[in-house]
Amino acid sequence: MLQQGDIGVSKKVSTMFVLSCRTYVLIGLTGRNASGKSTIVDWFSKKGLKTASCSDSIRAWLAEKNIEPTRDALIEGGRELRRQGGAGILAEMLLEMLDGENAVIDSIRTPGEVEALRNREDFLLVEVKANSDTRWERSQSRARAGDPIDRETFIRQEKAESVAKDAAGQALNATAELADLVILNDGTEDELSKDLEEMFIKLNK
């Protein structure tokens, strides 16, 4: 299910108005672990958009240091890169690599990254939401390397990612508040595909 919210009092226009008047070609995704972001990335990839992730820069940095890209290593690597280059550094690096190409970007986790991506006027931030039980079940089913193996760890990691303790940390709550559009993804993959198709049509009017 799609939810459209206000994009900012200063602009005095609704998201629906914006969606009907311009084409977005840089789509950013934010959301909790196992909310369905990777599935959405794959869907847009089939529509011809290039795929990228704010984690790509972290993975490259870890590889240079011969560090295995576990979930904890990715989190700490992101913190270190933000300490060195500022809150928006991962997004800034991606923008340079994309060089104006159409793309869908996964793993946007800080307001600083959103701010950097909004330097492109065609940027749209989408929050992907699903309830905790659904996400835990998905996490267990996919058995991705680095995913928590028990519910307690799953909840602990989620809390740690929700609110940043400092400028280098992840801040999913604050990032979600900046979303232009919300996708509720508690249903089936077919239901998600229908919502994405609806959104894609609106984005290309």
Key terms:
single chain, 205 residues, alpha/beta, Rossmann fold, 10 helices, globular
Architecture overview:
The chain has 205 residues and is α/β, with parallel strands linked by helices. It has a single domain (2-203), classed as Rossmann fold (3-Layer(aba) Sandwich). Helices cover 50% and strands 14% of the residues. It contains ten helices and six strands, in the order βαβαβαααβαβαααβα. It has helices spanning 15-21, 37-46, 54-64, 71-85, 89-98, 111-117, 132-142, 151-162, 172-176, 189-203, and strands at residues 2-4, 26-31, 50-53, 103-106, 123-129, 181-184. The protein has a six-stranded mixed beta sheet. The longest helix has 15 residues, at 71-85. The protein is globular.
Name the CATH class: Alpha Beta
What Rg is obtained from the alpha carbons, in whole angstroms? 16 Å
Q: Biggest sheet, strands in spatial order?
A: 1-6-5-2-4-3
The span between the termini is: 20 Å
Give the domain tally: 1
Write the CATH homologous superfamily.
P-loop containing nucleotide triphosphate hydrolases
Q: What is the name of the CATH architecture?
A: 3-Layer(aba) Sandwich
What name is given to the CATH topology?
Rossmann fold
Low-confidence stretches: 5-21
Structural class: alpha/beta
**Main sheet properties:** 6 strands, mixed
pLDDT averaged over residues: 85
Short synopsis of the structure:
With 205 residues, the chain is α/β, with parallel strands linked by helices. The chain has helices at residues 15-21, 37-46, 54-64, 71-85, 89-98, 111-117, 132-142, 151-162, 172-176, 189-203; strands at 2-4, 26-31, 50-53, 103-106, 123-129, 181-184.
